[in-house]
Automatic annotation (TrEMBL):
Residues 13-241 form the ABC transporter domain. SUPFAM superfamilies: P-loop containing nucleoside triphosphate hydrolases. Pfam families: ABC_tran. Coiled coil: none annotated. InterPro entries: AAA+_ATPase (IPR003593), ABC_transporter-like_ATP-bd (IPR003439), ABC_transporter-like_CS (IPR017871), ABC_transporter_ATP-bind (IPR050166), P-loop_NTPase (IPR027417). Keywords: ATP-binding, Nucleotide-binding, Transport. This is ABC transporter ATP-binding protein. It comes from the Bacteria. One of its GO terms (molecular function) is ATP binding. Belongs to the ABC transporter superfamily. The keyword Transport applies.
Length: 268
């Protein structure tokens, strides 16, 4: 982390896509939320409610159709956009590059010298427990290992903000659990701001300080929930009575919205 503590504020953000048929798709409506610096915010909501769209807006890849995005210091001053890096669900690794060169790719684009990028890529791989795998190629790795390479590739850029778009969605349940625990440790120790899009209530509770529960499309913030469970968190956290209370509350909020999303699916 290099920059000052900067919050990302969504002030009445809305976004309307134009579908290929020409129909307007109202993806987000009047979203008001803050992604606080040094904290993990999870975004959870029914399929198609605009979670990834909100992440793309926070990243600056999409401009809101209504409202605005602001970067502000904790003192309330306008600030420059913090440095961000994204971990995607698809592994997106270059098959012809070994693990080290995959992780170092962003640094290469940024013109960092070979010696420095190799040292930084090795350090990032060590953070995700992949020291010793530098010379392997993606096809030699399991799905979980590939996703850890994907996380290392984002970490190597030393972002102020790490954006995670369903990072474990494509993995089996056991691998997912192990990676959730590892990621929980990583965010706890790094102090990086993180924004996590997930379909998993468990993942949101294990990782986040704040959970934004979204409505069905057009996505709005239905509730902002603070997770007061201590850290470090692990599978054992799921046996904590407060975990059950939080889970039920989030499930209750989501259930109706999921049903609503199912009945409106395909309308756009
Ligand atoms: N480029 C686009 N053009 C038109 N409609 C789009 C476009 N991208 C997304 N949409 C629509 O906008 C809505 C929100 O999409 P988005 O991917 O942000 O939702 P999501 O909550 O991340 O979905 P999921 O949980 O299924 O990944 C969806 O109805 C989607 O079909």
């Amino acid at each position: 982390m290099t920059g000052p503590a900067v919050a990302i504020d969504c002030e009445g953000v809305g976004l309307t896509y134009t579908a290929k048929t020409g129909t307007a798709v109202n993806a987000l409506e009047n979203v008001r939320c803050r992604f606080a610096p040094g904290k993990v915010t999870a975004i959870i909501g029914p399929s198609g409610c605009g979670k990834s769209t909100l992440l793309q807006i926070a990243r600056g890849f999409l401009n809101p159709s209504q409202g605005r995005l602001r970067f502000v210091t904790l003192g309330g001053q306008a600030a420059a956009a913090p440095a961000m890096a994204t971990v995607w669900q698809a592994f997106n690794l270059f098959p012809w590059r070994n693990v080290l060169d995959n992780v170092a790719f962003g640094l290469e684009l940024a013109g960092v010298s070979r010696g420095e990028r190799e040292a930084r890529a090795k350090a990032a791989l060590a953070k995700v427990d992949l020291a010793g795998f530098e010379d392997k190629y993606p096809k030699q790795l399991s799905g979980g290992m590939r996703q850890r390479v994907g996380i290392a590739r984002a970490l190597v850029m030393e972002p102020d903000v790490l954006l995670l778009d369903e990072p474990f969605g494509a993995l089996d349940a056991q691998t997912r659990l192990v990676l959730q625990e590892q990621l929980a440790t990583l965010v706890e120790t790094s102090g990086t701001t993180a924004i996590l899009v997930t379909h998993s209530i468990e993942e949101a509770i294990l990782l986040a300080d704040t959970i934004l529960v979204m409505t069905a499309r057009p996505g709005r913030i239905a509730a902002e929930i603070t997770v007061d469970l201590g850290r470090p968190r692990s599978l054992a956290t799921t046996h904590h009575p407060e975990y059950g209370v939080l889970f039920d509350r989030i499930y209750g909020l989501l259930r109706d919205e999921v049903v609503r999303a199912m009945t409106t699916e395909g309308e756009a």
